[in-house]
C-alpha cells in the first residue's frame, strides 16, 4: 500500500489529542467489564474494541488510510481494515454485506441502489472532500499541456484507428499516443466516461489498472503517454508528471473548490451501512472521527476540503442515525 505524507494533519490532530490529554489534572477511570470500555474523565471518550471493514475507491483511499492511522492513536483496540478494489468493486462488497462502509469517487448508481434495497441494506451517503480528476502527460511532452474538452474526446474515444498526436493537431508529433486509464471498476473511470466519453467506448489500446501507481509509472516512463487519475496522485508525483490544463484552467485546490476546473471537479463520498452504525459503537465512533477530521486529512494528502458547514451537516445526520 502506498505510504502518504500525513505531516500536516498529524500535527493538527496530534496537538488536539495532546490538549485533550492535558485538559485536566485529575484522571478517573470507570471500567465496565460487560462491554470492555474504559471511560476517562479527561477525554470524555470511551476506549472501544471491535472491528470495522471498508472497501472501494482508490481515489478516496489516501484520505481513509490517513484517518485510520490517526484513529489508531485514539482507539488502539479498534481494528479498521480498508480494501481498494475501486468504487464499483467496493459497492459489490457493500451490497453483499461484506463491509460496513464503501468509499466512492462518484455518486451511487441507480442499479446499485436497487441491489442494496433488494438486499435489505439501508445506507447513508456522506461527502468527505472534493477532487479534481487530473489529466497528465510526460514532462518531455511540451505540446499537449493545454487541451480542450473536445480534444480530450478526440483523444480518448475509440474510433477504430491508431491515434497519433498529429491527429489532434497537425503541428504535433507524428507519433502514436500511449494511453493509461483507471480500470472499469473505478469511479474515476465512470466519472471520465460520463463527462468526457459521453458513454462512448474508451480507446481499446489503453492500459487499464485499478492501481493508480501503475498509471503514474506508465506516463512517467513514456514521452508519448497520457493518463488520468485523482488530484492527490498527481501532487504526490508532480516531479515526474505534467498536469494538463483543461479549457485553459489548471487543476489546483482553488480551481477545484470553486468549480472553475470544470467538468473534471467532483465530490468524494463514503457510504455507511445504517445498521452497522447503530449496532457497532466502534464504527459509529470511527465515522464521527472521519467527519470531524476529513477536511484536514483531505488537504494533507492533496485533495480539497469541504466548507465546514458540510461536515457539520454530516455530523448531524450521523447523530440522527445512532
From TrEMBL:
Residues 44-291 form the PBP domain. GO terms for cellular component: plasma membrane. SUPFAM superfamilies: Periplasmic binding protein-like II (SSF53850). Residues 25-56 are annotated as: Disordered. PROSITE patterns: PROKAR_LIPOPROTEIN. It is found in: Cell membrane. Belongs to the PstS family. This is Phosphate-binding protein. The lineage of its organism: Bacteria, Bacillati, Bacillota, Bacilli, Bacillales.
Amino acid at each position: 500500500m502506498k505510504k502518504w505524507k500525513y505531516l500536516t494533519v498529524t500535527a493538527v490532530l496530534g496537538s488536539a489529542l495532546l490538549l485533550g490529554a492535558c485538559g485536566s489534572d485529575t484522571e478517573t477511570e470507570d471500567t465496565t467489564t460487560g462491554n470492555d470500555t474504559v471511560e476517562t474523565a479527561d477525554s470524555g471518550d470511551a476506549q472501544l474494541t471491535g472491528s470495522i471493514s471498508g472497501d472501494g475507491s482508490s481515489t478516496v483511499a489516501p484520505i481513509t488510510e490517513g484517518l485510520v492511522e490517526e484513529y489508531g492513536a485514539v482507539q488502539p483496540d479498534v481494528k479498521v481494515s480498508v480494501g481498494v478494489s475501486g468504487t464499483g468493486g467496493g459497492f459489490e462488497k457493500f451490497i453483499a454485506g461484506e463491509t460496513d462502509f464503501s468509499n466512492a469517487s462518484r455518486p451511487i448508481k441507480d442499479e446499485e441502489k436497487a441491489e442494496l434495497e433488494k438486499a435489505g441494506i439501508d445506507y447513508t451517503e456522506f461527502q468527505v472532500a472534493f477532487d479534481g480528476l487530473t489529466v497528465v502527460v510526460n514532462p518531455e511532452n511540451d505540446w499537449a499541456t493545454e487541451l480542450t474538452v473536445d480534444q480530450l474526446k478526440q483523444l480518448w474515444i475509440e474510433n477504430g484507428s491508431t491515434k497519433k498526436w498529429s491527429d489532434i493537431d497537425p503541428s504535433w508529433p507524428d507519433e502514436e499516443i500511449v494511453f493509461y486509464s483507471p480500470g472499469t471498476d473505478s469511479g474515476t473511470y465512470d466519472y471520465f466516461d460520463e463527462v468526457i466519453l459521453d458513454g462512448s467506448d474508451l480507446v481499446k489500446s489503453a492500459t487499464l489498472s485499478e492501481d493508480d501507481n501503475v498509471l503514474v509509472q506508465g506516463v512517467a516512463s513514456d514521452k508519448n503517454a497520457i493518463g488520468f487519475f485523482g488530484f492527490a496522485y498527481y501532487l504526490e508525483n508532480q516531479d515526474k508528471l505534467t498536469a494538463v490544463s483543461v479549457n485553459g484552467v489548471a487543476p489546483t485546490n482553488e480551481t477545484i473548490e470553486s468549480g472553475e476546473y470544470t467538468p473534471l471537479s467532483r465530490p468524494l463520498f463514503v457510504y455507511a451501512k445504517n445498521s452497522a452504525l447503530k449496532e457497532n459503537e466502534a464504527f459509529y465512533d470511527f465515522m464521527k472521527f472521519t467527519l470531524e477530521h476529513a477536511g484536514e486529512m483531505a488537504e494533507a494528502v492533496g485533495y480539497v476540503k469541504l466548507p465546514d458547514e458540510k461536515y457539520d451537516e454530516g455530523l448531524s445526520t450521523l447523530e440522527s442515525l445512532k
